[in-house]
């Protein structure tokens, strides 16, 4: 495991909302901590309403985690561009997050423990 990245089960139940709608709820989320950055909650894909997500052509690469692909969130009120990311084939050191989804918290998009 990379010294500055820690992945552990996120305690409790976590919910994602966008434009007021609940996109997902999970008791199986993972919490990824990376250095001094705020922790990020990763949701199992099965616990997210994928019908609200549209694949984006946007990609980024993290030297520690690998290539991330993105989704837009399509809510009733607006589209949140590249607001969700996933590592389909992350580096072996962070293999636990493969296929999980993380959400950019922003105006109208929340990730919270309930």
Query: Which percent band covers the strand fraction?
Result: over 45%
Distance between the termini: 30 Å
> SSE order in H/E notation?
EEEEEEEEEE
Low-confidence stretches: none
Shape: globular
* Major pleated sheet: 7 strands, antiparallel
CA-atom Rg in angstroms: 13 Å
The pLDDT mean sits at 95
Helix percentage: under 10%
Strand-pairing-aware structural class:
mainly beta
DSSP strand tally: 10
Number of helices, counting only DSSP H or I runs of 4 residues or more = 0
Instruction: Give the strand order of the largest sheet, numbering strands 1, 2, ... along the chain.
Output: 1-4-5-9-8-7-6
What does this structure look like?
With 114 residues, the chain is an all-beta fold. The chain is 0% helix and 53% strand. The protein contains no helices and ten strands. The strands form two sheets. Strands 1-4-5-9-8-7-6 form a seven-stranded antiparallel sheet, with no helix packed on it. Strands 3-2-10 form a three-stranded antiparallel sheet, with no helix packed on it. Strand 2 and strand 3 form a beta hairpin. It is globular and about 40 Å long.
What is this entry, summarized?
The protein has 114 residues and is an all-beta fold. The protein contains no helices and ten strands. The strands form two sheets. Strands 1-4-5-9-8-7-6 form a seven-stranded antiparallel β-sheet, with no helix packed on it. It has a three-stranded antiparallel β-sheet with strand order 3-2-10, with no helix packed on it.
